[in-house]
Write a sequence for this structure.
């Protein structure tokens, strides 16, 4: 029995009618097996991608973590993992485009990569997905963004709604917006998956038209199970009408 036969045998009799066709491209996920805190096995990766394809996505850009202390991935490691996933998709007869970039943690090592001209994996063109710790504001954050811009990169800040330092510091939030840093919201934040304060902050950023991209940030089946509750959000129709960059990736 192949991977997709197992998937079909495990599906619910009445599958949820849920669509991300309006999004077109998911640009934040962790679907390369065994290299970060995302999927653990190749079969899990393929089944998750199959579910996402059934939501109507035409393309997935998966973004493994690159973090100095925890996930010491390189472009070479990520490309090898991507090729493994693509070959498995081809074997299963699945026709969906899957590319890879990275989610870079902002620290001194990342700054050194930028300033020394090391290769960064981009979402498209010069767009680079970055993240920080959730609690404390990185002291070097603006310095790193300046270095990125001076080296031709455009930062996308992953899930800003999850950073407590932004929720508590409206002035620093405005500083980032004044620098025209692109904000990417996790769709799961609108379901209350992380917490009510994070949900409310995500809604505020949407209301004030501060969001450039959306992503699933999918790590495992639990993420997609919760994602299928998104239509219950009062913001589900609103975000479908937004002029987001996902469609141009």
């Amino acid at each position: 029995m192949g991977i997709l036969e197992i998937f079909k045998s495990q599906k619910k009799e009445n599958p949820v009618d849920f669509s991300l066709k309006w999004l077109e491209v998911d640009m934040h996920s962790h679907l390369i097996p065994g290299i970060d805190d995302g999927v653990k096995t190749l079969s899990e990766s393929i089944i998750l991608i199959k579910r996402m394809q059934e939501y109507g996505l035409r393309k997935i850009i998966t973004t493994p973590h690159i973090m100095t202390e925890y996930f010491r991935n390189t472009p070479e490691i990520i490309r090898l993992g991507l090729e493994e996933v693509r070959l498995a998709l081809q074997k299963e007869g699945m026709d969906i485009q899957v590319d890879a970039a990275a989610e870079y943690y902002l620290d001194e090592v990342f700054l050194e990569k930028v300033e020394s001209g090391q290769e960064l994996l981009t979402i498209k063109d010069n767009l680079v997905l970055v993240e920080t710790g959730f609690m404390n504001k990185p002291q070097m954050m603006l310095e790193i963004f300046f270095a990125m811009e001076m080296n031709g990169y455009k930062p996308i800040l992953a899930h800003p709604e999850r950073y407590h330092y932004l929720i508590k510091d409206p002035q620093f939030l405005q500083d980032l917006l004044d620098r025209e840093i692109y904000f990417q919201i996790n769709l799961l934040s609108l379901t209350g998956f992380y917490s009510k304060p994070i949900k409310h902050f995500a809604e505020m950023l949407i209301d004030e038209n501060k969001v450039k991209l959306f992503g699933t940030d999918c790590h495992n089946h639990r993420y997609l199970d919760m994602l299928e509750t998104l239509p219950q959000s009062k913001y589900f129709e609103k975000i479908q009408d937004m002029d987001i960059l996902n469609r141009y990736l």
